[in-house]
Amino acid sequence: MRRRSLLTGVLGGTFLLAAGCASPVDTVGQVDFARPLLIPPLAPATVDGTGQRVFTLHAQPGRRDFGIGGTTHTWGFNGDYLGPTLRARRGERVRVDVVNNLDEETSVHWHGMHLPARMDGGPHQPVRPGATWSPSWTIDQPAATLWYHPHPHGRTREHVNQGLAGMFILDDDGPAQRALPHDYGVDDIPVIVQDKDLHDGQIKNKNTGDLLLVNGTYAPYLKVVTERVRLRLLNASVSRVYAFGLADERPVNLVATDGGLLAAPVTLSRIRLSPGERAEIVVPVRAGERVVLRSFPPEIGAARSFDTGRDQFDVLELRAAATLRPSAKLPAEFGGLPRLDPATAVTTRDFRLNGTDINGDGMDMDRIDTVVTLGSTEIWTVRNTDGQRHNFHVHDVRFQVLSLGGAAPPAELSGWKDTVFLPPKTEARLIMKFADYADPDMPYMYHCHLLMHEDDGMMGQFVVVEPGQSAGRISGVGAHEHH
Ligand code: C2O
Ligand code: CU
Ligand code: CU
Description:
Layout: H1 12-18, E1 35-36, E2 46-47, E3 53-64, E4 72-77, E5 86-89, E6 93-100, E7 109-111, E8 132-133, E9 136-138, E10 144-149, H2 156-161, E11 166-171, H3 175-179, E12 188-196, E13 198-199, E14 202-203, E15 211-214, E16 217-218, E17 220-226, E18 228-235, E19 242-246, E20 252-257, E21 260-268, E22 271-273, E23 278-284, E24 290-296, E25 313-325, E26 345-354, E27 357-358, E28 370-373, E29 377-384, E30 390-394, E31 399-404, E32 419-422, E33 426-433, E34 444-447, H4 451-455, E35 459-465, H5 477-481
The structure holds CU-O-CU linkage (C2O) and copper (II) ion (2 copies).
């Protein structure tokens, strides 16, 4: 039997939440899939005299008709809502000219990117209205699905929720990438999932909503023309956790997580993603069929009645053409994954997440919480000691999960990650190596990626220093602007 859907009125959820009702949001079977999935355009780039690939992103206000009645005021990069997909190859030098056409300060952070702290786009690299910020760096990491979004101090939730986010796809010359579907927009599809709370057609600065958008499309379908399609799933929501799978629970192949390919494809029927996490799945389809990508109840283990662990959504309908072009066979493995060896770790650190604090402190722009020596491998033990859910994201590095809840990590956490979900009362042990970039005066961030927690101060700062060097004084413009 089907539970009553809240989508009967798009605005219904607001009322029910306000009334404290514990009914889960359930749009299964209720979505009409009336709109073709929008595919973010690939950002054009020029190559300058030094061989640098140059992109331009304008953060700007806009208006979008999501097709649910009326026009919504939005923000976007180079358009009304979300931004173009940036794409670059390993070894390439890139520069992005970020132009702020909003009437407030913002920033753009390259989530998952290994790069110097001054280029990271966190709260210490604010871009004033009318200003242009031009970070540049060399792509030096394997192929992966990264993303970009604002990171202004205390305002990240609103900026992302208004529509400022986009995908940043990295390519490399590895044989696996050629064997996977890789024709962008045809069999290699960005799937940026966000929930929204719209009221009178306008975006509310809320933590959850019951309206689902994929690439800014409400109730979308995708025409599939090949035997296999690669979906690059990105949870770009404020706080909602999803458990993606096909409606008929057919097995799909998980091929990559946040930081790149797994050692080998993993067959599963569900993949859970908390905010900021990515997963690349390869879905087999049969000619002529329709199959729905769904988010099943993520069962996040929180007891609170207003929690979202029982919510489920129909996300995207895949409509297979009557005849499908053949796809390459999936490789049985991707050439192995170098494991970071715990025996090489020189430092172990503990991070306790509770309320909106890490180790009992809220974010302070002027305080360096952690000093890491360049070249060292460290183990970070991150504990959610809370009754509510959190996750943990580290800038600059990719990490591997040594254990989750005291057990070996499940297959979907066996590869490179930069964000990990922490159910209530759960501990994760992460191993990471800090290479290439030291700067005693400019910190990177680690934080909970539930954006309201991040904005409320559940964030700390680390600097990477040369051996023997000590931390300096935070020197970014941002350090002074907020005090
Ligand atoms: Cu996706 Cu610190 O961010
Ligand atoms: Cu990040
Ligand atoms: Cu949190």
